[in-house]
Specification:
Largest sheet: 2 strands, antiparallel
Helix content: 55-70%
Structural class: mainly alpha
Shape: extended
Strand content: 5-15%
Distance between the termini: 37 Å
Oligomer: single chain
Radius of gyration: 19 Å
Low-confidence stretches: none
Number of strands: 2
Mean pLDDT: 76
Length: 130
């Protein structure tokens, strides 16, 4: 995608904008199911049963943009208040699949490489040689 970015949230936002722009000019009766499938993507993460809440982590020291993370506790509390009594189980099932499933295994080597780089950087800053 042109204008690619290294910030995942920005990338997802740009992807949504690109899909919307394309839909405006390319949607037909024969392909409307494709747009509906894209629209339901966010529902697939937790079955569309709860709103995902975020919390601020402070500013990114490089870009100055606000870093955010998912506030799982707040998400579960508010979901229960709306009648999703198994909110913790749904969240735990999602997290297990996300972090322990096939996708995580495929990305293990990249994650491991980042860990090695981070460890080496810490050692370097402590005055030790690489």
């Amino acid at each position: 995608m042109v204008g690619d970015t290294h910030e995942w949230n920005d990338y997802v936002t740009k992807l949504g904008e690109k899909v919307n722009d394309t839909c405006k000019t390319k949607k037909t009766k024969d392909n409307e199911h494709l747009w509906e499938a894209f629209d339901s993507t966010s529902e697939k993460t937790l079955g569309g049963t709860m709103t995902i809440y975020q919390q601020d982590l402070g500013k990114n020291p490089v870009t100055g943009e606000m870093w955010k993370t998912v506030d799982w506790k707040e998400t579960a509390v508010k979901a229960k208040a709306k009648g999703v009594m198994d909110a913790e189980k749904k969240i735990q099932d999602f997290l297990s699949l996300f972090y322990l499933g096939e996708l995580a295994r495929k990305h293990y080597q990249v994650i491991h490489s980042y860990e090695q780089v981070a460890d080496a950087s810490v050692e370097f800053r402590k005055g030790k040689t690489l």
